[in-house]
Structures are given as C-alpha cells and as structure tokens.
C-alpha cells in the first residue's frame, strides 16, 4: 500500500514490522502503508490480530523491529520523535489522566518541552467541552471522580486542543456507554472537519457498524497482516 499521485502522504511506513519481546514471533508482519490528507481509515480484526501493535508502532510508542516511518516524506529519527508526537496523536482505549481537576489535565500538555512555545486556550477547550455536553463547572471536577466516559472525553479534548494532523484511535469507545461513545465520535468528526481536508485518522474498532460510520477506507488485520477490507 503506497501513495500515488502528486499529493504527498502525511504518514507512510515501509516494511514496518514488530517482534514480541522474545524476538521469535512476528506480531506485525512487514507492512507498507500510507495515510493521505483527508483520509478516514478504519481497521477491524479479532483480538490479538495486531491492530494495537500496528497503531502503537505507527505512533512511535513502540520501536519497530524492521522498516521505517516517514512523516511528511521525511524518515522519522530519534531527534524528530518529540515533534512528531505533537502532530500524530495516539488515543488509547483506557485514558491516562493526571491527579487534579479536569482543567489541570487540559493544561498539562503545555508543560511539556515539545509544546513550550504554545499556550493553553481556555475558550477553545471550553468550546470542545460544550460540544461534548459538558458545561464550564465541569472544568473544576476532580479527575478521580470522572466516569469512564467522562475520562475519555477529557483525554480526547486534551489531545484535540493541540490540533494534531493525524489521530490514531485504539478502540476509544469500546468501554463507554452509548451517549459517551456518541460524544467521542462527534468530537473526532468536528476536529476532522475543522482541518478542511488536511487531517487524517485511523480508527481501530471491534464494532463493524462504528467502523463503517467513522471511515471511508476499511482495512482488516489478521495475524499481523494488514489488508484492504475487500481482501479479507
């Protein structure tokens, strides 16, 4: 799977693979893949098929065993990974929040070195919360008192406010109630549409209906092999 035409891919991998800790089993078979601006991609497959392995490797959270990642046509290096992670964001199934309030969590990314030149925009963060059905007093709520759905919404807004170009969603709604899941989907689509064709995302899901709803391009993962939906 490689890009064609004059428009460059946002993200591309060549012969990307990953072995387990013992170095004997391939969790991800050598994979070629590209993600174009404006792409909405869903990946489905059985548990243990390699979906999360692929996403985490793509996000540079886990080092590949072979192959390379290209961001905007340039190979990713150790020096460029911190900046890369501000442009390509990974959202896990279970959010990790810091102690403190919702506001503390939303402000936290701006304390990181990679984002030291940027400032927290309270008005924009509040606008996103309102879109998720949360009013201003919600900002003072303790992170420890949030439901699973509320925690995921906060974690998502914490990322969306940074305006990443690519989002990698690893089953972000699988543990949520329908209302929270709908709020997450709505926030994602709002972020995508704000980008006016310049942003892209990959959505990993066990839910075929959700995969269809959230994507234009459908891929499947089976035993570490990524295929187009039609090939599954």
How would you characterize this protein structure?
Strand 9 (217-222) and strand 10 form a beta hairpin. With 232 residues, the chain is α/β, with parallel strands linked by helices. It has one domain (11-231): 3-Layer(aba) Sandwich (Rossmann fold). The chain has seven helices and ten strands. It is globular, with a radius of gyration of 18 Å. The strands form two sheets. It has a six-stranded mixed sheet with strand order 6-7-8-3-9-10, sandwiched between helices. It has a four-stranded antiparallel sheet with strand order 2-1-4-5.
| Residue fraction in strands | 15-25%
Structural class assignment: alpha/beta
Main beta sheet strand tally, sense and closure: 6 strands, mixed
Instruction: State the distance separating the first and last CA atoms.
Output: 15 Å
CATH C-level name: Alpha Beta
- Which fold name corresponds to the CATH topology? Rossmann fold
What's the number of extended β-strand segments?
A: 10
Write the H/E string, N to C.
EEEHEEHEHHHEHEHEE
Number of helical runs?
A: 7
What is the 3D form? globular
User: What is the level-2 CATH architecture name?
Assistant: 3-Layer(aba) Sandwich
Provide the CATH superfamily: P-loop containing nucleotide triphosphate hydrolases
Instruction: Give the tally of structural domains.
Output: 1
Oligomer: single chain
Helix content range: 25-40%
Q: Mean pLDDT score, rounded?
A: 92
In the sheet with the most strands, the strands line up as 6-7-8-3-9-10
Indicate the radius of gyration in whole angstroms.
18 Å
Low-confidence stretches: none
